[in-house]
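Suppose you are handed a protein chain with no further information: no name, no annotation, nothing but its sequence. What can you learn? This example shows the usual starting point.
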Amino acid sequence: MPYKPLSDRVIIQQQDAEETTKFGIVLPDAAQEKPQTGKVVAVGPGRTTDDGKNVPIAVKEGDVVVFAKYGGTTVKDAGQEYLIIKESDILAIRS
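A reasonable first move is to predict its three-dimensional structure. Written in structure tokens, the prediction is:
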């Protein structure tokens, strides 16, 4: 991973969208909805409070998370697409 997130940011590799329905119908790229789940590949050091204390991030590399639909910034590197989001945009961790 060539990027290192800052502050309370997390880098996520999104899971691939479903290309076929459960009935076997192939969906074109335009009809595929981007998934809201992905694997955490990098984590920032955490948020700094007003009094200078560091609040660590609750997720770690390798966690599979659910995140807000319209949050984050998409970046591409070596043919892979990543999403950089704030920790507050992460809604759940899959157990």
